[in-house]
Write a structure and sequence with these properties.
The strands form three sheets. The chain has a three-stranded antiparallel beta sheet. With about 425 residues, the chain is mainly α. It contains 18 helices and seven strands. It is globular and about 75 Å long. Helix 12 crosses helix 15. It binds s-citryldethia Coenzyme A. S-citryldethia Coenzyme A binds next to helix 17.
Length: about 425
Amino acid sequence: MGKEAARLELAGNASDYKVMSGTVGPDVIDIRKLYGNTGAFTFDPGFTSTASCESKITYIDGDEGVLLHRGYPIDQLAEQSSFMEVAYLLLNGELPNKPTLETFTRTISRHTMLHEQLATFYRGFRRDAHPMAIMCGVVGALSAFYHDSTDINDPHQRMVASHRLIAKMPTIAAMAYKYSVGQPFIYPDNNLSYTGNFLRMTFGVPAEPYVVDPVVEDAMDKIFILHADHEQNASTSTVRLAGSSGANPFACIAAGIACLWGPAHGGANEAALNMLREIGTVDRIPEYIARAKDKNDPFRLMGFGHRVYKNYDPRAKVMQKTANEVLERLGVKDPIFDVARELEQIALNDPYFVEKKLYPNVDFYSGVILSAIGFPTTMFTVLFALARTVGWVAQWNEMISDPEQKIGRPRQLYTGATHRDYVAVEKR
Ligand code: SDX
């Protein structure tokens, strides 16, 4: 038996709306006919009550702190799989068997090089450019170099573009870093793993061989898995909206990168570490907690709170454990980690944070690990973008393949001036 319809009464007229159920999670009310039936729109800035699409990729239960990719819990994926496996899973819906994973990994590694002319592009940026600024520019520019994979109506071209984006992001990101420190670009080495190759391109120099540290490689791979996808977050919604007009995939991912950069979203990892450094010592934490609670102070605890999670972000748990392991195994003693742990404890026991259900999110601990590995803070969001490219591409593909796909075009509640006649400038 189908669900009972939702009935809405407006100015004495009732209309019914289909209630749709997913495989799990809240039902949704299909209001596509609302405007036609009533002449009214819904009002939901920030989309707090709006499902923008149907998706089979990622499921989040924010109250329980659950995150599943294609049904698989994030902690199992982070502990037991690899980033390449998760990439395949997100793109194709199933975990690959061994030969399929090998073929996929080989395909991705064959696309790691960048068109040589793109290297000259970097030189147009100032040396002190933020690497996210470089990412926005260079990823957008890919559409000028790979014309043979910009036809979004051709499934083969879509697949090639997806592989190219996933494969080239580490190269682009490492080159952004190299450019900022004035070192020569390092070409990819396809004998290394996806993550090992990225580390070598970032930290290697032509003057000596680079040996990938397996501890760092493992931690980095986990970090990539933890950032790979997260349902309809702001940057993914941006990619979908950009893609809904038929824009090419490289342009869409560049749009996602721009959205991710903001401190309320992916930029929070950089902001969180800067905040921890500013706090500096455990005794100064109460001062910052007080500021975070003060409505008149714009300061917020970065890496804390989430639109969907009203419980511990399951990724933050894995991240905290990984931070512990990395710091211990690399022998790094960073007082910032003590500040982070103490700040977390104080906040989790403070009535303000308890009542608002504010918990650490994915960005709270990632900076501690990335800093221990040797990345400057400005690279943190770049690493998020690198990993999230997989999710963006999977979601973009899902959208383009959806027969109900339409250009995204919200409406508004207009509160500006009504009709008035133009007055010549000398008469104003
Ligand atoms: C990511 O959406 C995703 O899935 C994103 C992401 C992904 O993988 O794609 O998970 C990645 O973006 C993680 C979030 C990173 N951002 C931060 O860490 C920045 C700090 N946090 C926030 O500014 C905030 O919590 C957001 C942006 C994450 C969520 O914003 P919402 O859902 O719009 O919630 P809100 O700002 O309206 O907060 C509700 C209340 C407010 O108080 P009241 O007005 O109700 O009194 O909680 C307060 C806020 O002031 N609050 C905080 C706080 N976060 C929320 N107070 C102090 N410190 C904080 N961090």
